[in-house]
Design a protein that fits this description.
The complex is a heterodimer of chains A (359) and B (405). Chain A has 359 residues and is α+β, with helices and mostly antiparallel strands. Chain A has ten helices and ten strands. In chain A, strands 1, 2, 3, 4, 5, 6, 7 and 8 form an eight-stranded mixed β-sheet that branches. In chain A, a hairpin with a 5-residue loop joins strand 6 and strand 7. The longest helix of chain A has 39 residues. With 405 residues, chain B is α+β, with helices and mostly antiparallel strands. Chain B has 14 helices and eight strands. Classes of the chains: A alpha+beta (359), B alpha+beta (405). At the A-B interface, helix 6, helix 7, helix 8 and helix 10 of A face helix 9, helix 10 and helix 14 of B.
Chain lengths: 359, 405
């Protein structure tokens, strides 16, 4: 018996996602005008509606179901914005009267909303005047690996009041600049100069905006952890396969104790993070939500460190071929690395945890 | 800075049981005993015995034994809860050599006379055991042991030397592996003997260890005569007994709860250190991150243990998983106590042993002594990745499972 990863949340969602993700081609071109075949399948499957309540035609399912999707996608280093659009946005918009239509359209797979919650260096300024909302600034790091019909973001008024704004894709100008990330994710920085929207684009304001953004981002971070668990499981399988097959000095690499022990360290880390992430997801499904962001920060801090260590081991243990972008294990490593940085990196979460502890 | 206690609801059916345990731990464990545990002092036979007597009186003397031998008959989950509640309340652990190690082996391999003679005294804490396994030439490679026992009438005569024998200085009995034959494989020809420590010819010499605690000893056996009735199982099949023990006690439900308590203590220590200070220093940030990582690690270890308990109860637990848990927990205990060392700092490292107090003239303050004990513990914990199968041996075991060869 050789190692085979056991899913945290086995079931149909895991199996279906894994099947679709396994067949996904690797692309490195910015083609955000048309959804990829893989993404279209996810939209048809209703993955965006998993967390949306039944009143808005969603499945009203639990975070465990989205985590199953994330873990399965993570096994294949899928760069698609699953956490962002299937969990973060539904949580951000849940219960907001102005979001009903877009939630229904998301559940049906007809709309896809890209969240832009990282304010970046230039904050977005908003001025309300009658029924018009005017925006100046920049949408920073919008994940457009797949096309979006809307953006949702935070803009701040002169008086400091934060606004949660939903804008149709067509209402904001084209890309200012586009980027390919370390794991194939594609993002855009979009300059907004005097862009005007209807005042009804403001879905929420004040403290509620911060609360929603904090909670939704925390869940995004937890799903990045679920993706990392999937990626780590697959990295270990592939590393063992490689070491067992590759012959040097007349013997399989798998016979060298130094290499075996490093794989063991990857495995022990895997068992640990798998239990940790699974428990955090279950707790979030069942328990009170009050302390969630803080608990998640602890998990995300740990995964950010561990995910990166395992990724570095997977590359090292593959030797030269570990540097190749064509190698699935190398793509998994890049994926785990990207997950470790997304939704708050190690230090962002350390800051969050340390603030109350030190004051 | 609290340890996340994530999975209380997975143990729901045991809520009433947990409450019963909690009340007992609160009311029955003497405060002086808790103080020893809370301040990280070395637990000796005296503390172990007091606690064992309390547990025995309550009918909880042996959480891991079946009811027919006076045990509680608890399943692994109940045992885990017992460990969690008692660790949280700073009760001492139970002494494991009798209850955990030789007791179950006597139950399985012992004669009716041996069971009647030895088991009740383990249960009530009146007789203390130590383990005579390792030898100067037989550590991880235990089967290379050379201490020999030769039959002479109705006695075995033992000659040789054991090493790293913990608690030998306070034990009444030693279960020991000896060579009764040099034929065949080296695992064959090993027998398990039960040796009263007051038998003439036994000399116990303490080994001065880096932690400055008296824990381990050399045990010299010079023409030690033991009745043949003290042979456990069949002559030449002692390896089977040793293996039985290893296979049976793969999961230690106590490890994670004790780690969780240590993580809390280290958190309190760090808070106390920062209290009253001005702006947080760089060192506090560094220590905090290490603490958070260790706390998250404890939460992960707890999940690993709970799922391993499920698998063990279903009979599906893989060797790689229990070894991974041992490997991880021993590493984590070193990380945590390493943070404590850094918090206590050079002040206490330089003043480990109070030589004035040792002469009875002056005693250091309690707070100082508690920090000093952490340094002892740090040094002692280096053994965590060595004793009970070194981390490198565990890695070999896990690798065999992972690679299928």
């Amino acid at each position: 018996m050789t190692f085979h990863a056991t899913p945290m949340f086995p079931g149909d969602l895991y199996d279906t996602t894994a099947r679709v993700a396994a067949a996904a081609p690797v692309t490195e071109t910015f083609e955000s005008q048309e959804p990829s075949e893989t993404w279209s399948q996810f939209l048809q499957l209703g993955w965006q509606g998993v967390l949306i309540d039944e009143a808005h035609d969603g499945a009203g399912a639990s975070l465990g179901d989205v985590a199953a999707i994330a873990e399965a996608a993570g096994r294949h280093a899928l760069a698609q914005p699953l956490a962002a659009r299937c969990a973060v946005v539904p949580l951000l918009l849940a219960g907001l009267p102005g979001a009903s239509d877009v939630l229904r359209a998301m559940a049906a797979g007809e709309a896809s909303v890209c969240p832009v919650l990282d304010t970046g260096p230039v904050p977005l300024a908003a001025v309300r005047d009658g029924d018009r909302l005017t925006l100046n600034g920049r949408l920073h790091g919008a994940d457009l690996t797949e096309p979006a019909t809307h953006f949702v973001f935070v803009a701040t008024q002169d008086d400091g009041l934060p606004l949660l704004v939903l804008a149709p894709r067509d209402a904001v100008p084209g890309h200012a600049s586009t980027w390919l990330g370390i794991d194939g994710r594609q993002t855009a920085d979009i300059a907004l100069s005097g862009v005007t929207l209807a005042a009804s684009s403001v879905l929420a304001q004040g403290e509620d905006v911060y609360t929603r953004v904090e909670r939704a981002s925390a869940v995004g971070g937890l799903l990045a952890c679920a993706q990392t668990v999937g990626a780590i499981g697959a990295m270990i399988e592939q590393t063992i396969e490689y070491l067992t097959t590759r012959v040097q000095f007349g013997v399989a690499l798998a016979t060298f104790q130094a290499l075996r022990h490093r794989v063991v360290e990857m495995y022990v880390a895997y068992e640990n993070v798998r239990g940790m992430v699974r428990r955090q997801v279950l707790d979030l499904c069942e328990g009170p939500a009050g302390s969630a962001p803080r608990d998640i920060a602890l998990v995300k801090l740990y995964l950010s460190v561990t995910g990166r260590q395992v990724a570095e081991s997977a590359i090292q243990l593959h030797g030269g071929i570990g540097m190749s972008r064509e190698l699935p294990a190398a793509r998994l490593a890049m994926h785990a690395l990207a997950c470790s940085l997304q939704w708050g990196d190690r230090f962002a979460h350390l800051d969050r945890l340390a603030r109350p502890a030190l004051h | 800075m609290t340890i996340p206690h994530p999975s209380s609801h997975t143990l729901d059916p045991y809520d009433a049981f947990r409450e019963e345990l909690r009340q007992f731990a609160e009311s029955e464990c003497p405060p002086a005993l808790k103080e020893v545990v809370r301040t990280n002092q070395k637990v000796t036979r005296n503390e172990y015995r007091i606690w064992q007597e309390k547990l025995f009186a309550r009918g909880w003397g042996a959480p891991n034994w079946p009811v027919e031998y006076g045990g509680t008959g608890w399943d692994l989950q109940q045992r885990y809860l017992f460990e969690e509640v008692t660790a949280q309340a700073d009760c001492p652990p139970q002494y494991h050599h009798g209850l955990g190690h030789i007791g179950p082996v006597i139950m399985h391999f012992g004669t009716p006379e041996q069971k009647a003679r030895f088991l009740p005294r383990i249960l009530d804490g009146s007789e203390w055991w130590c383990q005579g396994y390792s030898e100067p030439g037989a550590g991880s490679d235990l089967a290379s042991l050379k201490t020999a026992a030769v039959r002479d009438g109705d006695h075995y005569v033992i000659n040789g030397q054991k090493i790293w024998t913990s608690h030998a200085q306070e034990a009444d009995m030693m279960y020991t592996l000896v060579r009764t034959s040099n034929e065949g494989r080296k695992q064959a020809g090993i027998s398990l003997l039960l040796v009263p420590m007051d038998t003439p010819g036994i000399e116990v010499r303490p080994i001065p260890t880096i932690d400055h605690w008296h824990h381990v000893n050399e045990v010299f056996l010079n023409d030690v005569r033991v009745p043949c009735a003290n042979l456990l199982g069949v002559e030449g099949e002692g390896w089977k007994c040793a293996k039985f023990l290893l296979d049976r006690e793969r999961l230690s439900p106590a490890t994670v709860p004790r780690l969780a308590r240590l993580a809390e203590q280290v958190g309190e220590l760090l808070r106390a250190r920062g209290a009253g200070g001005s702006a947080p220093s760089a060192s506090q940030h560094v220590l905090l991150e290490r603490l958070y990582l260790a706390q998250a690690g404890v939460a992960g270890a707890r999940e690993m243990l709970l799922s391993a308990i499920q698998e063990e109860m279903q009979g599906t637990l893989a060797a790689s998983k229990s070894s991974a848990l041992k490997l991880y927990c021993s590493d984590l205990s070193q990380q945590l106590i390493g943070i404590a060392l850094d918090i206590a700092g050079p002040e206490y490292a330089a003043r480990l042993v109070d030589t004035v107090a040792a002469t009875g003239q002056e005693v250091a303050s309690d707070a100082d002594d508690s920090l000093r004990q952490l340094i002892h513990t740090y040094l002692f914990y280096r053994s965590r990745t060595i004793a009970g199968g070194t981390s490198e041996v565990q890695k070999n075991v896990i690798a065999r499972d992972l690679f299928g060869a």
